Amino acid sequence: MEIIVEETMSVRDCLKLLLEKSGLPGDTWHLRKMDWCYEAGEPLCEEDATLRELMICSGDTLLLIEGKLPPPGFLKVPVWWYQPGWHTGHWKSHPDQMHGAPSPGGVWRAASTQGAPGDPHGEVSLLYLGDLEISEDATVAELKSQAMTLSSSERVVPSPAFLRAWTVEGRRPGRLLRVSRQPLKEYKLGRKTEICLEPLQKEENLGPQDVVLRTQMRLPGQRAYAPCVDLVWDTGRGWTAGSLRQRVAHFCSLPVEKIEIAKYFPEKFEWLPISSWNQHLTKRKKKKKQDNLQGAPYYLKDGDTIGIKNLLVEDDDDFSTARDDLGKETQKQLALGKKSQEALRVQNGDLFSSTKTPGRPRAPEASLSIHVGSFR
Question: Where are the residues of the annotated region Disordered (predicted)?
Fold first, then answer.
């Protein structure tokens, strides 16, 4: 539907006009501007502002979306329940599934589960709980507390400290809301932000410099891993490879020189080893600002998977699994398929052009002289 309105019309009046033209009942509607991806963008929250003030131009598309906007200073947040793929059963019933323990012999072991060992990169399980209207001044702890009221009796947790809150990005956990006492407005959550809650086996109170990583111990003699175990790494001394290796070694009760670690890139099905900085840089080239795992090539962040290899029982440098081989082969076949389709399209285009009626013959070429005058 196309309508012509004055650019000085307010958002409220424009909404009323569109509802009248569309014949839609009720007042639980709002407007959003279509973005460059042809998707619903941010809502037009300032109802008293004019279309000109909000940079609405001729030819723009406004979407009429059902749902009343929250009052100014409030957020309407869809809340999901996040159950990682390597957790099975009720959280109370399996207290050892998330947290491994050092074995009596000093070799770290994780609790095993049925099926393929340690595959956290499969389908992510998100269960929609409902929408939550909350003030931007509320803290992360208050968000968790209010979100607990949306959960059913089957997912009861003792307190908000047993929940971890993430933003949802691409149907997966994205950014971790780590500090419980930090107001939501300091996280700069947009009006399209969604939140997922991850249940924990024990209370957690993360500091501003704590990073949550998913660690997996390589199974000796197999191209597979034990189930994931969460590791909290305090980056107060820097995001260095040496600091992370020390933390992982302590976590696994192994000497730091007897472990190798690697970050997993699930979109590429690749493992990138994380060596001590002095192992792959000479002293002359060593620069302090470069020793930062947040930057290239690791881009380490909350929720990343770290593979751990115990060199006491396995000393090769292969971190890959059979699943990685299958994933790479699938990507290769998809790439070859795209190339074949492109070649076929070009071939068909050439065949089609060759069957066309020949165009008018080109005129013979003639010499052309250009004289540039002097304007001095």
Answer: 96-115, 350-376
